[in-house]
TrEMBL record:
It catalyses: 4-(phosphooxy)-L-threonine + 2-oxoglutarate = (R)-3-hydroxy-2-oxo-4-phosphooxybutanoate + L-glutamate; O-phospho-L-serine + 2-oxoglutarate = 3-phosphooxypyruvate + L-glutamate. Its cofactor is pyridoxal 5'-phosphate. Gene3D superfamilies: Aspartate Aminotransferase, domain 1, Type I PLP-dependent aspartate aminotransferase-like (Major domain). It comes from Pasteurella testudinis DSM 23072. Pyridoxal 5'-phosphate binds at residues 76-77, 102, 153, 173, 196, 238-239. The keyword Ion transport does not apply. Its EC number is 2.6.1.52. It is found in: Cytoplasm. This is Phosphoserine aminotransferase.
């Protein structure tokens, strides 16, 4: 295979056009004869880039005016602590909807800072996992916020409907599906996402926070995670990861230049449907997620045994199909097909899967 396709769950592949532009500008950004990594984040050039990036993501997601776009460090895991520190009252509590590993990890961290109720919203039937409950309108009012993860990268479970929490504050960890399709931001109090799957490299996290939720942080909240301090200092209370921020802006522009999120959703659905269709008819591989909750971003599958799975991953790697090994918790294989993955990558994977199945029946 002449072309390599990277199916890593994160850090994930980035658009080739973005990488090519970054390469071209690496030594001479905006005719400054220096790299974007070497200029002051307080200088006019980088300040303009920062403002441009915020306008780009506002346009992509149609973010209402009463929401702030903030850039922070510490990844999504850092926000597992920052969210309760900013949104929980001193004697408050929150509800966490458990759909898999990452939502459970967020709840575990939040328990360090307040009372957390957790409810599992998935169920397994005949070896297939699906989401069974999304209406919490009768109980949500007692909580300062309700947290969920709409896409679980490890298990390949995606929640397409927004949970019903009445007038309660809904917080979503969209690290692995942000910018993959249009969403109604007004249904959320806060959205946060690590960049390393659909937005850029690791090292930066984007927060979209409704204005009325800012300014309530506990006094013990670290300043770099205090949403009011981040807002008042244009996300530059400390030196931000400037190169990661720059790359995110390039990705945002790439998305705008390629039709925005509606076009991206069409591409992503076409890729996922093609791969799932093959899995369902193959008779050799199987996916264990209910059809209604199959992720568009992370397609998990397995063969009949672990030895065969290991053989598959090794052979695929030799053929230029990288990072297909499933997470250690669930095993099997996982093809992460984020925005930057072209349809040709999915087609190459299917062709390899067909050949492997024929040779190992």
């Amino acid at each position: 295979m002449s072309q390599v396709f990277n199916f890593s769950a994160g850090p994930a592949m980035m658009p080739q056009a973005v990488l090519a532009q970054a390469q071209q500008e690496l030594l001479n950004w905006e005719a400054l004869q220096t790299s974007v990594m070497e200029v002051s984040h307080r200088g006019k050039n980088f300040m303009a880039l920062a403002e441009r990036s915020i306008q780009q993501i506002r346009e992509l997601l149609a973010i209402p005016d009463n929401y702030q776009v903030l850039f922070a460090q510490g990844g999504a895991r850092g926000q597992f602590a920052a969210i309760p520190l900013n949104l929980l009252g001193e004697n408050g509590k929150a509800l966490y909807l458990n759909s898999g590993y990452w939502s459970a990890a967020a709840a575990k961290e939040a328990r360090l800072f307040g009372k957390i109720d957790e409810v599992t919203i998935t169920a397994e039937k005949d070896g297939v996992v699906g989401v069974e409950k999304l209406d919490f309108s009768e109980i949500a009012a007692q909580y300062d916020y309700v947290h969920y993860c709409p896409n679980e990268t490890i298990s390949g479970v995606e929640i397409f409907d927004v949970p019903n929490v009445g007038d309660a504050v809904l917080v979503a960890d969209m690290s692995s599906n942000i910018l993959s399709r249009p969403i109604d931001v007004s249904k959320f109090g806060m959205i946060y996402a690590g960049a390393q799957k659909n937005m850029g490299p690791s090292g930066i996290v984007i927060l979209i926070v409704r204005d009325d939720l800012i300014g309530k942080a506990r006094s013990a909240t670290p300043s770099i995670w205090n949403y009011q301090i981040l807002r008042d200092n244009d996300s530059m209370f400390n030196t931000p990861p400037t190169f990661a921020w720059y790359l995110c802006s390039l990705v945002f522009q790439w998305l705008l230049d390629n039709g925005g999120l509606s076009a991206m959703e069409s591409r992503n659905r076409a890729k996922a449907e093609k791969l799932y269709a093959y899995l369902d008819q193959s008779g050799f591989y199987r996916n264990t997620v209910a059809v209604a909750n199959r992720s568009l971003m992370n397609v998990t599958f397995t063969t009949e045994n672990d030895d065969l799975n290991a053989k598959f991953v090794a052979a695929a790697t030799k053929c230029g199909l990288q990072a297909l090994k499933g997470h250690r918790i669930v095993g099997g294989m996982r093809a992460s097909i984020y925005n930057a993955m072209p349809i040709e990558g999915v087609e190459a994977l299917i062709a390899f899967m067909q050949q492997f199945a024929q040779e190992n029946q």
